[in-house]
Specification:
Elements: H1 6-12, H2 18-23, E1 40-44, E2 51-58, E3 61-69, E4 80-82, E5 89-91, E6 95-101, H3 104-108, E7 112-118, H4 123-127, H5 145-164
């Protein structure tokens, strides 16, 4: 992903109002992020833990979506869940259901789309082996890193298509 600015991020949101986009708490370390290793920029709002955001390059521009993190019961440390983007398995609630309000008339009617995502939204780093999950082993795959990256991007674009459709 190419580096983006605060203004780029705020202008990219498609499923929230301009006021909500303006009030979103952005990551403080934008300049220090490993942009070459990111397929998308994802973060949790430190001021509102039930909010998360994803910004990705799509069709030559940026698409940003606001997410709501569902608060489910605490999971047992031995239970595993799998992220639907990067297919990383994590224990202890490291993966959670996040929902995004759809755009257009469907969103105005209250329709949303949900996916199970890594709680820290570091899918790009898990895919590339740059970050390891706590307490769970890596599932061996015969795919190369490039194939895993392509799969993660395809899963991300499929999710974005459902939100923007």
């Amino acid at each position: 992903m190419r580096p983006v600015t605060e203004d780029d991020i705020r202008a990219s949101f498609v499923n929230c109002s301009k006021g909500e986009a303006k009030r979103a708490n952005l990551p403080k370390d934008l300049a220090d992020l490993p942009w070459e290793d990111l397929d998308f920029l994802g973060w949790r709002d430190p001021g509102a833990p039930e909010r998360a955001y994803v910004v990705a390059e799509r069709n030559g521009g940026l698409v940003g979506i606001a997410l709501r993190v569902t608060s489910g019961g605490l999971r047992n440390f031995t239970q595993r869940s799998m992220c639907s983007l990067c297919l990383t398995t994590q224990t202890g609630g490291g993966v959670g259901l996040m929902t995004a309000r759809r755009t257009g008339e469907a969103g105005r009617q209250g329709n949303s789309v949900g996916q199970y995502l890594c709680g820290d939204l570091a899918c790009s780093l898990y895919t590339r082996g740059k970050k390891q999950t706590a307490g769970s082993g890596v599932i061996e795959e015969s795919l190369t890193v490039e194939e895993k990256v392509a799969r993660t991007r395809a899963n991300l674009h499929s999710f974005l298509d459902k939100v923007v459709a």
